[in-house]
Specification:
The structure holds 2 protein chains of 2 kinds.
Chain A (H helix, E strand, L loop, with lengths): L3 E6 L11 E7 L2 E8 L7 H5 L4 H9 L6 H16 L5 H29 L3 H22 L8 E2 L2 E2 L5 H27 L1 H7 L7 H6 L4 H5 L7 H4 L20 H24 L17 E9 L2 E9 L5 E7 L1 H13 L7 H7 L4 H4 L18 H13 L1
Antiparallel strand pairs in A: 1-2, 2-3, 4-5, 6-7, 7-8
Chain B lengths: L1 H10 L4 H22 L9 H10 L11 H20 L15 H21 L4 H32 L4 H10 L2 H5 L1 H14 L11 H4 L9 H25 L8 H25 L5 H31 L1
Classes of the chains: A alpha+beta, B mainly alpha.
Chain lengths: ~400, ~325
C-alpha cells in the first residue's frame, strides 16, 4: 500500500474553471478525505447592491453568474415586484419563461461539453459547444446579447418577441431536440463514457436530502423536486412539462437528467412560443419601493436559486441575499468523493455543474489560539500588499 | 569517407533532421485530422514547428527542489533514444541504413527508454502531480509493453527472423502474410496509442486530473524536447508498423518513399480516429483492458500464425 499524501486541486488547476481549493488526502489512487475551501472568488455583490438603486442592482445581479444570469435577475425582480405589489403582464411572464428555458438549454449543453472534457472526451466537448452556439444565436436574436441578456426589468421585460423572431426560434428547436437525443444516446451507450460515469460518486436519496442538494443533482438521486412545478413562478403554472427524475444517483444519472431536461425545455419553449399572449410588456414600477421583505425561488439550470430582498422605502435595497444552487450541492460531492479514484476528481466536481464565483462567501480567518479575528481596512490592505512584494 | 557518410546519415538523413521534419509533419497530420473529426479547422501546416520554436525561445526554469542533474539530462536522453530508434527503421528501401540481424528488437528497446525517462522526470521534479503521473506511467508501461511485444513478435515468427529486412522481404514475396496478421496490427496500434499516452490511454498525463503528469514542472526548451520526443516516438511507431505489418516499401526510391508515407498517413489517421472517438479510461481500466483483451488476442494471433506456418510450410 502506498503512503498517504496530499494532492492539492486548486485554486489553480486545469479541471477547475474558477478558483476554488480542494485538498485531497490520497492513498495511491484512492481518495481518503477531502477538504473543500471556499472563498477565493468573493466579489461582495450583495453588499454592493445596498448602495445602488433597484434598476442598477438588476444589472449588477445579472453579473453574479455568466451562465444563469437570467435566473438571478428574475429571482431578484420577483422579490422587488412582490414587495411593491406589482403583477407583471402575461406576455412578460411568457417571455421570461422563454429566455429562462433557452438559458437552461445553453447551460445543459455547456455542462455536457465540460463533462466531456473532464473525462478526456474532447470530441463531445467540441460537438456540444458547436450546438450550443445555435442557442446563443437565438438568445442574441431575442435580447441582443449572448450571455448577460438584460431582458428583465422591475415590472416586466424590456424586449418583445415578434412574429418573424418566433418563427426563427421554432425552426431551430427541432434541430436542437435531435442533437439532445443524439447526445443522450451517446452518453448512455458509448463504452468509454459508461466506464467513466457508471456507479461513480453515488449518493442515495437519503444522502442527497441530508446534504440539501437541489436541481439536477437532487433529481438524479431520485428526489422529486422542481421549483417550476412545486412553486410555479412566471408562467410555469400553465406550461406542460414533466420533471425528469433518475434513481441511479451516480454521474450517469446526473448526465441523463440534464440531457432529458433539454427535451422538456424544448417542449416548454414550443408551447410558450405558440401561445404567447398579447398585451403590454411592463407595468409601471415605482422608483422607491415601500418597506417590506420578500423571498423568491427560481429553478435555475443548476438547481434552486433563492433571493431575499429587504426594502426600507428608499430607492435602494436595505439587504440583498443570494443563495446560488452550487452552495447547496457542493458539500454533497465532498462526501461522495471519499473512496473514489483520483481520476474521478474532475468529473465529480463537474457533476454538480458548479459555479464557484456565484457561491463564494467571504471567509473570516480566526486565530486558533486566541479566537481573535481582525478586519483590515483598504489602506492597511494596500500597505500589506506593498510590504509583501518588497520582501 | 565513411565517417562523413555516417555523420550525414546520423545528422541529416534518415537521422536527426529528417526525423524531426517527418515527426513534425505527422504531428500536424494528427492534429489536423483530429480537429477535422471534431468539426474544427485545425492548425496550419507549420504550426508544430512554430510551437517548437516558441517553446525553445522561452525562459528555462529549473524548480529549486528538483534534482538539477536529472532535470537536465532526461529531456536530452528522451530525444536521443527516439532519434536513435528512427535510424534503424527502413524508409525508402527494404532495409535501413544500418541493417543487422536484430534491429527490430533494438528499436523496441530504444522506444522503451523515453517511457523510463518520463517516469524519472516525474519522480525527480518534486511535484505531487509529477509523482502521480510517474506511477501511472510505470503502471501503463507494464500494461502495454507485453501486448506490444507479442504483436511485434508475430511477423517476426512468421518470417522466421528478427531482421526487419527479412520480414519485409518475406511479406513482399508472400502478400497473404499481411492479411494473416491484421489482428496483431490492431493490437500493436492500440499498444502504440498507450505508449504515446493518447486518449483513451492518456491517464499518465491526464490534463484535467494531474495537469501534465510527469512533465508538469517542465517549461521552455526542456518541455520542447519532451514534446519533440513524443512526436518522434509517434513517427518511429508508425514507420515501424508500416514496415513489419504492411510489407514496407517497394520499387524505385521515390515511389517507395511515397508508398511509405502513404502507409504512415493511414496509420496516423487510424490512431487519430481512436483519439477522437473515446473518453479517457482510468489507469486500472487501462491495465485490465490490455491484459484482459489485447494479450489474449495477441496470443491467439500467435497460435494462428504458428499453425499457418506449419500448414504452409514456409
Amino acid at each position: 500500500m502506498m503512503a498517504k499524501y496530499t494532492l492539492p486541486v486548486g485554486p489553480q488547476h486545469p479541471a477547475l474553471k474558477e478558483p476554488e481549493s480542494f485538498w485531497f488526502k490520497v492513498e495511491g489512487e484512492v481518495i481518503v478525505d477531502v477538504d473543500i475551501r471556499l472563498g477565493y472568488n468573493h466579489r461582495g455583490i450583495e453588499k454592493a447592491c445596498e448602495s445602488r438603486n433597484y434598476i442598477q442592482c438588476l444589472y449588477l445581479i445579472e453579473r453574479i453568474c455568466g451562465i444563469c444570469s437570467h435566473s438571478h435577475t428574475t429571482a431578484f425582480a420577483q422579490c422587488v415586484e412582490e414587495i411593491a405589489g406589482l403583477e407583471i403582464p402575461a406576455r412578460a411572464k411568457y417571455i421570461r419563461v422563454i429566455v429562462g428555458e433557452l438559458e437552461r438549454l445553453h447551460s445543459h449543453l455547456l455542462w455536457l461539453g465540460v463533462a466531456g472534457h473532464e473525462i478526456g472526451f474532447d470530441t463531445l466537448f467540441m460537438y456540444s459547444w458547436r450546438d450550443r452556439e445555435a442557442v446563443l444565436d437565438l438568445l442574441e436574436l431575442i435580447t441582443g446579447n449572448r450571455v448577460n441578456y438584460a431582458i428583465n426589468t422591475i415590472g416586466g421585460v424590456r424586449r418583445d418577441i415578434d412574429g418573424p423572431k418566433r418563427e426563427q426560434i421554432l425552426s431551430q428547436l427541432d434541430l436542437l431536440a435531435d442533437r439532445a437525443k443524439f447526445y443522450a444516446d451517446l452518453v448512455t451507450t458509448d463504452s468509454t463514457c459508461l466506464a467513466r460515469l457508471e456507479n461513480v460518486a453515488k449518493f442515495s436519496a437519503e444522502q442527497a436530502r441530508a446534504f440539501g442538494t437541489v436541481g439536477p443533482t437532487a433529481r438524479a438521486s431520485g428526489i422529486d423536486l422542481d421549483v417550476r412545478r412545486d412553486d410555479p413562478y412566471a408562467a410555469y403554472g400553465e406550461m406542460p412539462f414533466k420533471v425528469i427524475i433518475s434513481d441511479r444517483g451516480d454521474l450517469l444519472g446526473r448526465a441523463i437528467v440534464r440531457l432529458e431536461e433539454i427535451g422538456e425545455s424544448i417542449k416548454i419553449l414550443k408551447y410558450a412560443l405558440q401561445n404567447l399572449p398579447d398585451g403590454p410588456l411592463t407595468v409601471k414600477a415605482p422608483r422607491k419601493v415601500p418597506a417590506g421583505e420578500a423571498v423568491s425561488r427560481y429553478e435555475a439550470p443548476r438547481g434552486e436559486d433563492i433571493h431575499y430582498v429587504r426594502a426600507d422605502g428608499s430607492d435602494h435595497p436595505e439587504r440583498v441575499k443570494v443563495r446560488a444552487p452550487t452552495m447547496a450541492n457542493i458539500y454533497a460531492i465532498g462526501e461522495s468523493m471519499k473512496g473514489s479514484y483520483v481520476a474521478d476528481i474532475p468529473i465529480i466536481i463537474a457533476s454538480i455543474d458548479p459555479c464557484f464565483s456565484c457561491t463564494d462567501r467571504m471567509i473570516k480567518i480566526v486565530r486558533q489560539e486566541s479566537g481573535e479575528a481582525r478586519t483590515m481596512t483598504w489602506e492597511e490592505l494596500r500597505q500589506y500588499g506593498i510590504r509583501w512584494y518588497q520582501q | 569517407m565513411s565517417i562523413i557518410l555516417d555523420l550525414v546519415r546520423i545528422l541529416i538523413f534518415p537521422g536527426l533532421l529528417f526525423t524531426v521534419v517527418f515527426s513534425l509533419f505527422l504531428e500536424w497530420l494528427d492534429r489536423k485530422l483530429y480537429a477535422r473529426m471534431q468539426n474544427r479547422v485545425g492548425p496550419p501546416f507549420r504550426q508544430p514547428l512554430w510551437d517548437l520554436v516558441k517553446l525553445i525561445s522561452k525562459e528555462d526554469i529549473i524548480p529549486e527542489n528538483a534534482n538539477q542533474f536529472m532535470y537536465t539530462v532526461l529531456p536530452v536522453l528522451t530525444v536521443t533514444s527516439a532519434v536513435a530508434a528512427m535510424i534503424y527503421v527502413p524508409i525508402w528501401n527494404r532495409e535501413s541504413v544500418y541493417p543487422f540481424w536484430g534491429d527490430l528488437l533494438v528499436i523496441v528497446f530504444l522506444l522503451t527508454i523515453p517511457t523510463m525517462v518520463l517516469f524519472l522526470a516525474g519522480w525527480f521534479s518534486a511535484n505531487p502531480f509529477g509523482v502521480v503521473g510517474s506511477f501511472r506511467t510505470a503502471i501503463q508501461f507494464l500494461s502495454y509493453e507485453v501486448p506490444l511485444l507479442l504483436a511485434v513478435l508475430t511477423p517476426a515468427v512468421l518470417a522466421g527472423s528478427w531482421s526487419i529486412r527479412d520480414i519485409v522481404l518475406f511479406q513482399q514475396e508472400h502478400p497473404w502474410a499481411v492479411a494473416a496478421q491484421l489482428a496483431a496490427l490492431a493490437v500493436a496500434l492500440l499498444a502504440l496509442q498507450g505508449k504515446l499516452e493518447r486518449v483513451p490511454f492518456d491517464a499518465p498525463e491526464a490534463e484535467t486530473e494531474i495537469v501534465a503528469g510527469p512533465i508538469t514542472e517542465y517549461t521552455g526548451p526542456r518541455l520542447a524536447l519532451f514534446r519533440l520526443s513524443t512526436d518522434i516516438q509517434l513517427a518511429v511507431g508508425v514507420a515501424l508498423l508500416s514496415n513489419i505489418f504492411l510489407a514496407g516499401a517497394i520499387g524505385p526510391w521515390y515511389l517507395a518513399l511515397l508508398l511509405f508515407l502513404a502507409k504512415c498517413v493511414v496509420l496516423v489517421a487510424i490512431i487519430a480516429a481512436i483519439r477522437a472517438m473515446m473518453a479517457r479510461l482510468r489507469i486500472h481500466q487501462i491495465t485490465s483492458f490490455y491484459w484482459k483483451y489485447l494479450v489474449p488476442i495477441a496470443m491467439a494471433q500467435m497460435v494462428i500464425i504458428v499453425l499457418i506456418k506449419g500448414g504452409v510450410g514456409v
